[in-house]
Write a structure and sequence with these properties.
With about 325 residues, the chain is mainly beta. It folds into three domains: about 130 residues, no CATH class; about 110 residues, no CATH class; about 55 residues, no CATH class. The protein is built from four helices and 23 strands. Strands 1, 2, 3, 4, 5, 6 and 7 form a seven-stranded antiparallel beta sheet that branches. A six-stranded antiparallel beta sheet has the order 10-11-12-13-14-15, with no helix packed on it. A six-stranded antiparallel beta sheet has the order 18-19-20-21-22-23, with no helix packed on it. Strand 10 and strand 11 form a beta hairpin. The longest helix has 14 residues. The chain is elongated and about 85 Å long. The protein starts with a helix and ends with a strand.
Amino acid sequence: MKHLKRGVATLAIIFSMATGVLGQDPGWPQRIVKSSGTLIAYQPQVDDWQNYQQITLRMAFTLTPTAGKKVVGAATMQGATWVDNDTHTVYINGAFIKDTYFPSLDAATSAHMAQLLSDFIPGEFTIGLDRVVSCMKKPESVPTVDLNNAPPTIFVNYSPAILLQIDGDPVLADMPKTNLKFVVNTGWPIFQDKSDSQYYLLVGQVWLMAGNLPGPWVRTTKIPKDLSKLPDSGRWVDVKKMVPPPANPYPVVPKVFYSTTPAEVILFDGQPSYIQIPGTQLSYANNTESPVFLYGPTKTYYYLAAGRWFSTSSLDGSWTLLL
């Protein structure tokens, strides 16, 4: 808990408290004055931004307690991030300090100064994406990339469905001031209630619930009360509008396909329907938004995804990459 308090304090000081305006980047250094003292934060360096979802930063600062002497310090911090590409903004949640360093102080005084940082606790904060990129270490050389030609998992469904894709093993972070966690490494709003470990997923205007991420997922109108404590800004704006769940007597409840590896979903509006392409032996599926083709002589299906072609003899079977 002490690490969480220190991290929330310091990271927010760095990025947002100088102006008090969420989403603006005020520049460096930043001078923050509170009743407990004054902090001057210098531009941090990004040590690592793992999968662009977990960030590690180093920052130098001076901290002057009220009626005390100025002390020079440094801190290493981590936090969960979410990037809004439209506004070039990085939202940081669940931040905490890994360690602090006060070169001129003994252990007892260092612990006291670290505790003093807890006086600088704000709420949710943001930083400009360009600022983060400019602070990152530049690689000495560009590594080569091994191409993975294994076909992704391709799900096919004939009624509404979604792909609940997690980038690797799920990473959960605490939502500040709530009894909730949220899954960091996905674009979907997924929350876990720490009291009973149930997961809650918002799809459109429908809330779904499951005992584990692979499901099965079912519709629910009873969601955790702490969802009402979500911030009124950033990535949670649209989620907050669905708390409490809106009345809908005839909701469309989609099937949920779950994957922690690359995957695709082909959705048909009912059973597949095809239209012949004049002058060829090909037909295209006209009741799906996915580019699906059928070659008549061999009854082979072809599907284009991420610039690559895949084929199969059965829509419900395995797919092969066309090289």
